[in-house]
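Subject: mismatched residue count in predicted assembly?

I count 226 residues in my input, but I want to confirm that the predicted structure covers every chain. Input:
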Amino acid sequence: GDSVTQMEGPVTLSEEAFLTINCTYTATGYPSLFWYVQYPGEGLQLLLKATKADDKGSNKGFEATYRKETTSFHLEKGSVQVSDSAVYFCALFNTNAGKSTFGDGTTLTVKP
Amino acid sequence: EAGVAQSPRYKIIEKRQSVAFWCNPISGHATLYWYQQILGQGPKLLIQFQNNGVVDDSQLPKDRFSAERLKGVDSTLKIQPAKLEDSAVYLCASSPSPGGTEAFFGQGTRLTVV
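Triage response: the counts match. Full output below for your records.
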């Protein structure tokens, strides 16, 4: 079946540091790929998405590129802020099966 | 466009009690999902409906969990009796079908079993 593997956390960075959270996937067909963010006490929020190979999703300074050859969708941000502290989930949507599969999440803490 | 609506947002019950959650998907979306998100983990699929029929309920603990989708629109998820390990966020999502490229998630219901 489908699976998503995320870099284990927690990740602790200083403000303005560069962020990378690795994500790789296994799926049949051509899934859509997503990053969701969950702030403390809140629900899942869609951060960015890419629906086909080589697409780049971007939002709020975060970026991720759909790499079919390496089955990866790594999340990056050039300069993190304290307000970026949250749990980040990588996920795929299998368009054939119509199902979402999530990674286990990576906790990011940004210190001033 | 209105999003996926869920209620209640929070619920605290004692073990062995019963509880029900409600979900109203995005209008016109044929596929509806219920996910369970335990603290520290990613969401896990419990059940998937296509219109009012069940597509996949292989991960639903059927001895205590039940779900229905009335007239292919709203859905309820019930737990009876609840156990401590059922404490989690229960997420509802919907997607257009066929041809959808993503599922749209509600805010979730946070259940605490004490």
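The radius of gyration of chain A is 13 Å. Marking this ticket as 'not a bug'.
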